[in-house]
Amino acid sequence: MEIVPYLALASALAGLGLAGYFFGLVKKESPGDERMVFLMTEIQNGAKAFLKQEYTWVSAFALVMLVLIAIVITPLASIAYLLGAVLSALAGYIGMTVATMANARTTEAAKQGPAKALPVAFRGGAVMGFAVAGLALAGLMLVYIVFVTIMEHEKAFEIVTAYGLGASTIALFSRVGGGIYTKAADVGADLVGKVEAGIPEDDPRNPATIADNVGDNVGDVAGMGADLFESYAGSIIAPISLVAFALALSADDLADNATSLLMFPMAIAFVGMIASIIGSFLVKGGDSTDSKALSKALHMGTNVAMAITIVATIGIAFWLFGGDDSFDAPIGLAISVIGGLIIGWALGKTAEYYTSDHFAPVKKIAAQTETGPATTILSGISAGMVSVAASVVLVLIGIGIAFWGGEMAFESIAGTSENAALTGGIYGIAVAAIGMLATTGVVVSVDAYGPIADNAGGIAEMAELDPSVREVTDALDSLGNTTAAIAKGFAVGSAALTALALFKSFELAILKERPGNPLSLDIGDVDVFIGLFLGAALPFLFAALTIDAVGRAAYEMIEEVRRQFREIPGLREGKPGVNPDSARCVAISTKASLKEMIIPGALAVVVPLVVGFIDVDTLGGLLAGSLVTGFALAIFMSNAGGAWDNAKKYIEAGAHGGKGSDNHKAAVVGDTVGDPFKDTSGPAMNILLKVMTIVSLVFASAFV
Amino acid sequence: MEIVPYLALASALAGLGLAGYFFGLVKKESPGDERMVFLMTEIQNGAKAFLKQEYTWVSAFALVMLVLIAIVITPLASIAYLLGAVLSALAGYIGMTVATMANARTTEAAKQGPAKALPVAFRGGAVMGFAVAGLALAGLMLVYIVFVTIMEHEKAFEIVTAYGLGASTIALFSRVGGGIYTKAADVGADLVGKVEAGIPEDDPRNPATIADNVGDNVGDVAGMGADLFESYAGSIIAPISLVAFALALSADDLADNATSLLMFPMAIAFVGMIASIIGSFLVKGGDSTDSKALSKALHMGTNVAMAITIVATIGIAFWLFGGDDSFDAPIGLAISVIGGLIIGWALGKTAEYYTSDHFAPVKKIAAQTETGPATTILSGISAGMVSVAASVVLVLIGIGIAFWGGEMAFESIAGTSENAALTGGIYGIAVAAIGMLATTGVVVSVDAYGPIADNAGGIAEMAELDPSVREVTDALDSLGNTTAAIAKGFAVGSAALTALALFKSFELAILKERPGNPLSLDIGDVDVFIGLFLGAALPFLFAALTIDAVGRAAYEMIEEVRRQFREIPGLREGKPGVNPDSARCVAISTKASLKEMIIPGALAVVVPLVVGFIDVDTLGGLLAGSLVTGFALAIFMSNAGGAWDNAKKYIEAGAHGGKGSDNHKAAVVGDTVGDPFKDTSGPAMNILLKVMTIVSLVFASAFV
Question: Among A171, A118, A165, A160, which residue's Cα sits nearest to residue A244?
């Protein structure tokens, strides 16, 4: 049984091998003519410059954490922290490098139709997907094998958790910094280019076009990659650390099954990785640009990978827990994992329902543009808020199912003691999150495909290729918008479940440090209640800070684009040989977004530390308050933003007067409001919740 | 000491007498020429028709509650419930009747300048203020005297609480229904009149103008009155019911001071009423339209009343609790009350900072109109969200101070048992809410003054009076916008404190019914956590429902106004003798808003009942989750809405291009988005929280 971490490590290395193989395939493709290579290189250099500077800034922050962790826990935990941070950064860097190589190659391949272009874009995404999943799992298994299996270090599980914190740090800053960058550039390019100068999107005359394309890569590729790296690692760490703390507190109940319980999450990660690798070979493009056929081709990989994971999970559960006469344990845990997977899928579908123009909510928003921007905004806000209720109900059903499955399993394993039942329930919730994320490799591949297709279209436009090429890339791009929904559902759902499981681990960690004096989490206690209240306010502050940051960064961008149109003769008219100073726009967006990233990023780490050292019960309340309110706010912002975006696209496709009409203008207002909602504040919120919980968990022993 | 309820009753009757006296003064004033009387009567009839139908609808709902209460508690509680509901409705009706009488009279008086007009408007408001405070207190004291003092009924305190629930029912539906009405009419009048037909606000040609003015009365007067009636009654009931439950559970600790603890809240209400009466005589207008002088005149009454209340509270505390050697008890409780008053004031100032055009946030929103409606919306959302953090921190400071004061007092009274200390802390929080609301009489007077001045301006415009009259009414009106901030701060702050105290009473009520088996409020328990999560989602759903309701009701209004402009010849051109069919607009707004009120209103009552009967621990989590998230959302929506409103007014006053500029158009978009935020969803949210808690409290015994 102890072979599981080695198996998982091997599967992770296989995933990395696959990433290398796909990298070779992508590289072999032609990047097109000189102009296309030039554009690709510009985007690539801009993105690399951003990442380099971002990582420099984050290093300073990580250094402080490193020292703190070394003092408070053990220097070995610092090493794990560093490994988590470095691997996450590396995954982002690799993914982004390949994405910025794959864009022009997809454009070039699009000249020969979708059957040729789809696999290029998907493989570009798959390098990212398997770099993320492979590095996250390999690093984590390495830490586990060295500190738990080999060294049997007394603080082994704190060290494992520190690995997660390293990943979380990078994820938080990548999401916030990348999110600010991408939206500042987007808003700057749109407001001055499209609205003021009246030139189309991705026009080479617009100085912010390159920055806008860079933004797609640093936000949607590198940011998303770091996010999923963190979510994936976190979902495996949560049940492991829960079991470790439970064992430390009452070893007797669980002793017989201790190893199985520790191995189960890693075993699921192992089968998920293998399933993802198999699935990724099944994505093949057809000859038609018909969206259904393309969608089927792209989804084939994910669907097969999930089916394999479901079947294999049942096998794993019986292998690890099938020794008893009763089959309650394997059945219960399989229910938890599969329940999580299904709920994650349902969450993605819910997000799709509220944000896709095939359904009523977006159609209603589009109809509301008839009465102007105000009603457009109101209907989007309302749709986003209703989607909160729907998503929360789903998550709660997921929590209920997973809890019930886990409880059933633990009653069979550890008897009917109340403590065992409760731990079992939370363990069920934790492994449900893995159910959602086991196939991260292929899910992220599909997700990273989106910005590559988007960029490919941008390059087609900027290189002034034949419109038929743009048609193909547009078909690929529109597909990317809907596929992202599934990944989002998994990311969001797993965030809630993982945060809840980590929260419980935090409770156990405090109890371990303070035997007989458990954390008070009674809402009726005034210190807990104060924490709860403060926790509910925090996500609002975080959202406001990130929205403002986008506003300020966009403002600097707008000023620069205006200046260039004013001062560079012939630019606006498109005189041959006159080029905008794109590099300056890239530099401005980089500097502004990194400056703006610091305060909201630091908030997530500083607040729990300060509150924890003052009163640890208040911290418990704060984490719970932030979790429930932050989750609701994140769903609201993501879905409202997505709905406005697609309402605009729906109108651009010809509904309600189409492009250029007053209705379209109203829809553009909605889309612009939604931009920081869905691409900055919303996605960063999920990481905020986990960072706060994991910081509390890592520093639990220092608080008491 | 037992004389306190009688004193409070007497002071309430004195307040009612004062309302009658002011009513006489207002009535004596001339309502102006025939045209003005016609307009006034139209508004009056529209408002009365709405209230009549609203109360009919609510009666059906109240009847169901009545039967439920009679079965579950005792028929006597139904009587108290009915009394609370009827008196609250009566206060709203009286206030609205006088407000719609005072509007034309203020216009007429404005012909002679502000010194004449200010007192008319204020006295009109004061009838409302003292009707609300007087009826609420008189009814409550009557219930207390009959059931507690005289009958010593075994369920006396449940009966007292039922009175509060009656008031809450009316408040909820008045806020929701009135809020939908006023915004549907406002948006309808603005969108078609101002934007499409290009005629100014309050133009007599606009068929929705009367409905818009009716809306000001049913929303801002009757709705606000019912809201304050409920808040005021609730703030007195909360500490009384807390003490009653604490006594029932462990009488020994508190026996010596039981009566004092029950009397203290009523005694503060008594001195607050007397102070309000004194203060109301000090409001006198000066000769200038200078806003500072007017503001000073209007605020004089409130400031004096508060100063008296503070001093008298200290006296009362020493009278009731000064018997011991230690002065910890009176000092501690005085700290709680005065702390509450100061925090309420600070909350009002915070709201003012974020919503008044004298400060940075609104100026920034106005500046953001330069880059269009999207940035206007984003900066308003951000300002509203930052104000959440500021307000929550203030409330938590208030909770901390009040808790500390109450704890100190109870340690002196009841010894150092942990239970006594905790109850003491919550008692401190409960009486802090009374500190905020003791001067309700004069505070509501100032608040109700606002819509009267607003309507007076409308009548001046519609009756086509000399522009100098409009100038005076505009000066009075702009004052009303800022004065409302204080009342809002009190209403919002007291909502949080009262809900928290009622929540604790709910906990004690469950313990009383289920001795030895207290409510589990441990966030770590999965059923509590599920409740917490569900509770966090509920306010989002409520906000979405109310926003949508306004949208749908406004849509019907827009269609009707368009129809009239299309079908009534000469209306748009202002042909003499051609009048719009205002009555039809009023009827449409009435019907639509009442229909839309039902679902969000019922939600507040049905959800806690359903959840409570399933799992009472989950209900505890749900109440806590709704309280913290709903509070945050309410502050966000109210302040963002207020900020947009005043950013628009700031531009209309000449900044950033002034009226008619593109910036102004962007500001109007912000204002329109903010309308349902600040006048429908936001204010109703506060009542939602209390209704849910008080429903749970009343039905606590039935749940277990």
Answer: A160
Structure-token match 């690995």, residue found: A163
Instruction: Give the pLDDT score at A539.
Output: 96
CB proximity list for B58: less than 8 A, separation 6 or greater: B85, B89, B169, B170, B173
CA distance linking residue B313 with residue B331, whole number of Å: 10
CB pairs A-B closer than 8 Å: 214
B chain contacts of residue A191, beta-carbon cutoff 8 Å: 371-372
> Residue B517: which H helix or E strand, with range?
none
Q: For residue B482, what pLDDT is reported?
A: 64
Question: Cβ distance B289 to B471 under 8 Å?
Answer: yes
Token pair for residue A108? 């070039």
DSSP state of A371: G
Tokens of A399: 């929590």
Per-residue pLDDT tens over the stretch A447-493: 888 888 888 888 888 888 888 888 888 888 877 766 666 777 788 88
Q: CA–CA separation, B313 vs B267, rounded Å?
A: 8
Contact between A241 and A697 under an 8 Å Cβ cutoff? The reply is yes
Q: Which amino acid is it at B318? A: F
What is the rounded average pLDDT of the residues A368-376? 90
Angstrom distance (rounded) from CA B274 to CA B289: 31
- How far is it, in rounded angstroms, from Cα B619 to Cα B431? 25
What's the full length of chain B, in residues?
Answer: 704
Q: State yes or no: pLDDT of B79 exceeds 90.
A: yes
Tell me if residue B575 falls in helix, strand or coil: coil
Tokens for A167, please give them.
Answer: 């990943």
DSSP B370: G
| Among candidates B388, B503, B670 on the partner chain, residue whose Cβ is nearest the Cβ of A540 | B388
Residue A522 β-bridge partners? B522
Residues 6+ apart with CB under 8 A from A153: A74, A76, A147, A159
Query: Contact B554/B692 with Cβ under 8 angstroms?
Result: no
**Cβ contacts of residue A545 below 8 Å, gap of 6+?**
A599, A600, A603
User: Cα B511 vs. chain centroid, distance in angstroms?
Assistant: 32
Three-class DSSP category at A654: coil
Report residue B36 as tokens: 């003005």
Q: Is the dihedral of CA A185, A186, A187, A188 positive or negative?
A: positive
Cβ contact (<8 Å) for B621 and A523?
yes
**A389 and B541 in contact by Cβ < 8 A?**
yes
Tokens 């009513």 map to which residue? B23
The Cβ of residue A30 has, within 10 Å, a number of other Cβ atoms equal to: 12
Residues in A closer than 8 angstroms to B195, CB to CB, are 372
Cβ of B628 within 8 Å of Cβ of A403? The answer is no
Neighbours of A674 (CB within 10 A): 30
Cα–Cα distance measured from residue A305 to residue A393, given in angstroms and rounded to the nearest whole number: 27
- Please state, as a whole number, how many other Cβ atoms lie within 10 Å of the Cβ of residue B471: 15
Helix (H, G, I), strand (E, B) or coil at A289: coil
pLDDT at residue A36 greater than cutoff 90 = no
Contacts of B555 in chain A (CB under 8 A): 371
Contact B389 A544 (CB under 8 A): yes
How many C-beta neighbours within 10 Å does residue B109 have?
26
Question: How far is A680 from A183, CA to CA, in rounded Å?
Answer: 7
Quote the ipTM score: 0.93
Contact A523 B528 (CB under 8 A): yes
- Contact assessment for residue A299 and residue A484, using Cβ atoms and an 8 Å cutoff: no
For chain A, give the number of residues: 704
Contact residues on chain A for B191, CB-CB shorter than 8 A: 371-372
Map residue B522 onto helix, strand or coil: strand
Is A674 within 8 Å of A482 (Cβ atoms)? no
Which two three-digit tokens encode residue B20? 């009658």
